[in-house]
Amino acid sequence: MLDELPFGPAPEYRIETNPNFKESLRSAINLFNEKRTEALNNLYRGEVITGAQPLDMAADVEEMAASCGYFSYNLIIFAEEMKTFLDILEELQRLQETDVRSWEWLKFWKRLGKKTPVRDSEEGKSCTVLTGV
């Protein structure tokens, strides 16, 4: 997926996405989540973690297990962000096909959460704070 550029040749640079990418990514994330949970459960139930061992060795094993969990969690976060990227590309592709000129496709934060206006006490200016992000 990452080796295919979503943009067509110059000068139009039309967005060309594979519609199977999102479903494949969704399936891969679900499978990865299942196997990640299974692997971490096996690791923490294993004799290496639960068995009696010197304190230094136990700390090393726990650090290794935590690193594996953290790394796999970050892979999931990366995959979720890739889904967001594919959503943005699909929206841009739809807008290109309808020849609508707009920057709305770029405002990804609108899809992330509610907007709450906040007043600046010094000058009375308002800004927007995203919640639920």
Describe, in plain words, how this protein is organized in 3D.
The chain folds into 2 domains: 1-102; 107-133, no CATH class. Helix content is 55%, strand content 9%. The protein is built from 3 helices and 2 strands; from the N terminus they run H-H-H-E-E. Strands 1-2 form a two-stranded antiparallel sheet. A hairpin with a 6-residue loop joins strand 1 and strand 2. The radius of gyration is 22 Å and the shape is elongated.
Summarize the SSE layout with pairings:
Elements: H1 20-45, H2 47-50, H3 55-97, E1 114-119, E2 126-131
Antiparallel strand pairs: 1-2
Helix pairs in contact: 1-3
Tell me the strand order in the biggest sheet: 1-2
Number of domains: 2
Class by SSE composition: mainly alpha
Number of helices: 3
Radius of gyration: 22 Å
Question: How many beta-strand runs?
Answer: 2
* Terminal-residue CA separation: 26 Å
Global outline: elongated
What portion of residues is helical? 40-55%
H-E order:
HHHEE
Mean pLDDT: 76
Major β-sheet, in short? Answer: 2 strands, antiparallel
